[in-house]
Structures are given as structure tokens and as C-alpha cells.
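Reviewers of the previous submission asked for a worked example of the structure-prediction workflow described in the proposal, so we include one complete record here. The input consisted solely of the amino acid sequence. No template or homolog information was supplied to the procedure at any stage.
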Amino acid sequence: MNSVLILIISVPLIEIYLFIKIGSSIGALNTISLILLTAIIGVAYARYEGFNTLKSGMSQLVKNEVPIYEIVSGAALTFAAILLIIPGFATDLMGLLLIFPFSRRIIFNAFSKRFKKQDNTFEKKDFIEGEYKDMDEK
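From that input alone, the workflow returned the following C-alpha cells.
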């Protein structure tokens, strides 16, 4: 089965389970307040980190360097803000992990090792030398 389909089905199920468990422990009003509080604080902190990333990217451009980490970091912060706006505790946890620079760098390093460019250079042993003769010409 497609992993995206599994993700689409499993995330709401996990969120519903967490709503029921946490709601039964702390109450419905406290659960709703906690969800709203994490959304407001998370988006505000994502905005703060976004401005820091923008400043860092501008300083990289001034040095005539390509701000690759800042571009990827900005995209991750946007995704984190979206996760924080979506109601739920699991999505809030994933969003918070993406917002903090320390955990974001760990996640980026894990993904960059997985998708690292492989060296596809040809060596002399990859070629077979030979001669040919065109048989159609007379």
C-alpha cells in the first residue's frame, strides 16, 4: 500500500486517540485551551525563527554564498507552522521538532545522509576498448 495513504489514514487516528486520552485526563475545556495555546505560541515562534532564517540567508548572500540551509530551513519552518495550526497533539509535536534549530539540524542531517549524491564517475575499468569494421561498405 502507498505510504502516503497510510500516513493520511494514520495521522487522524492518532490525533483522535490522543484527544480522547488527554481530554479524559485534563478535561475537554483544558484540552481545547491547550490546542489553541500551542497553535498561537508555535506560530509566533515559527515567525520569529523565520525572521532569523531570513537574516541568516541575507548574510550568506552578502558573502556571495548560496544559502542552501536557509532555504531548506525556511521551507521546514513553513511546514512546521502548518503542523502547529492543524489541531492535534501529534502534529504539534512534529511541528515543534521542526521549529527548534537544534532538532531541525538533526533531522536535516538524517535526511541528507539518506539522499546524499552518489559518485558516479567512470573509471578506466568500466570501458572495453576495441576496433570495428563497417561491413556494409565495399
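The mean pLDDT is 85. We consider this example representative of the routine output the project will generate in years two and three.
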